[in-house]
Amino acid sequence: MPVSQPVPLSRPDAVPTPLPVTAVTCLEDRAHVERTATVELAVGVQELLLGPVSALAVDHSLHAELDGAPDATVLDVRLVRAWTPRGPQPPADEDSALRRHVHALKEERRALERRCERLRTRRDVLGRLTADLLRDIGEGTGFGEAEPARWAGELDRVDAERDACGDELRSVEARLTAATVELTETRQALHLAEQEDPELTALVRLTVRSDTGGTAALRLSHLTPCAVWRPAYRATLDDGELTLQTDAMVWQRTGEDWSGVRLTLSTARSAGATAPPRLVEDRLTLRDRSAAERRTVEVEVREEEISGLGPKPVAGLPGVDDGGEARVLQAPAPVAVPGDGRAHRVPLTTAVTAAHSEHACAPELSPLVTEVVRFTNPSGHALLAGPVELVRPSGFTGRGTLAFTAPGAPAELAFGSSDTYRVIRESDESRDTTGFTGKAVTTRTVRLHLSRFSAPEESGAHVITLRERIPVSEVAEVDVRLRKEACSPAPDSLDADGIARWDVTLAPGGRRTLTLVYDVVSSGKVSGV
Known about the structure:
Layout lengths: L20 E6 L4 E11 L2 E10 L9 E5 L5 E12 L12 H46 L5 H46 L5 E12 L3 E11 L2 E12 L2 E12 L5 E9 L24 H5 L1 E2 L29 E3 L4 E3 L6 E18 L7 E8 L9 E7 L2 E8 L7 E9 L2 E13 L6 E13 L9 E8 L8 E5 L10 E2 L4 E8 L4 E12 L3 E2 L2
Parallel strand pairs: 1-10, 8-16, 11-26, 14-21
Antiparallel strand pairs: 1-2, 2-7, 3-6, 4-7, 5-6, 8-9, 9-14, 10-12, 10-13, 14-15, 15-18, 16-17, 19-20, 20-25, 21-24, 22-25, 23-24
Helix pairs in contact: 1-2
């Protein structure tokens, strides 16, 4: 069977076959790009030139498949990169003033050339009009018609327009000549001052062997950096109903635009290490306590954050929190993401669910009363951690954050503070030592003053949830006791984390004062409290 020779790709007439992007899987810090094209195969071994493609494509990730040609085999696929001069394009903000001046002169010269063409056309039309007018005068004179006044007026008007057109044409041509000279000098100065940076382009060289030839569908995939995505949300609260819209913010600067692609968003980390960490030796030793250490117990006060008090703000662009399991989201329709490096919002899902609102305040952290909305994840997929735009029927309210939430799991959002409430926190402390046991007793009293400022037409009582914490002891030598008889009123609940909670009903213009009293009792051997 005869075997055809490979097509020489170095010849000038070798035109690459376009290989557009049709599908993209955007990972946490890179993208998996899929391209498709229809190619004509000859019998034997041949080389195909495809592209251009992004020069950032990862070489070892190239993978090519041929569909529709069962006897065709891909022998080799590789990227061929080259530096080529950049095509004409408008200057960017980072370009020099000289380069922007060249662009302005080119635009001015193009406008002057179009103006000259229009003036020459008008001058020719006026010349034909003069010839027609003189022919009309000659024919009228032959027939014995004599209208010298009209003929003189029309000739004067046409001559005046021709003179004005000629003057303007000469002025435009002079400016065109000057602009051409200035452009030439500016280009020379630009050539001496700056060097035109070439552009790195890449083509795909595909070696294929086919026994029968024919048409085949080529599918090529590869990884590329400079692409990233993060989840974003928009929550709209309206009369106890929450509409949660899940979006994806996509950035990419791969050197090419993604137009009409099938977009898949994944939290898989292809660059993550798959090997377990190395084990290092950790020695534990025992020693006897000294006499001073037996006489005293060192106690330190440690601050801990409790996630149940509400979502916390995330500084900067967070990583993708997927709960330890790779998650995949699909864009419902083809999308376009330009390669300009800017954030582009891609809608994914929209779900509606019932929501429960609560006015809550933690005076030790902030004096503001915040409306906290609790709901169940209705989207059918996991909600990844990300920023949330908060919207009410009146418009945009603010921004919050959403923690990772499994499908059907409870979640909460803070919809901003209410100006109609004011909370003032006062605290004082007293110390005493019992004479018989030598225990130190520290009594702390916290007073919370809650006020509601309402409009005259406002009616109806509101429930405000106040939370105040008390210390939680982890050693037997320190005991924390809540004095319920001294509290006014006693907390409605006190959980294992030491969070005391009151549900206070407040009418318009109402005021309440809540008092919390607790003792911290420590033995004489305790130090540090």
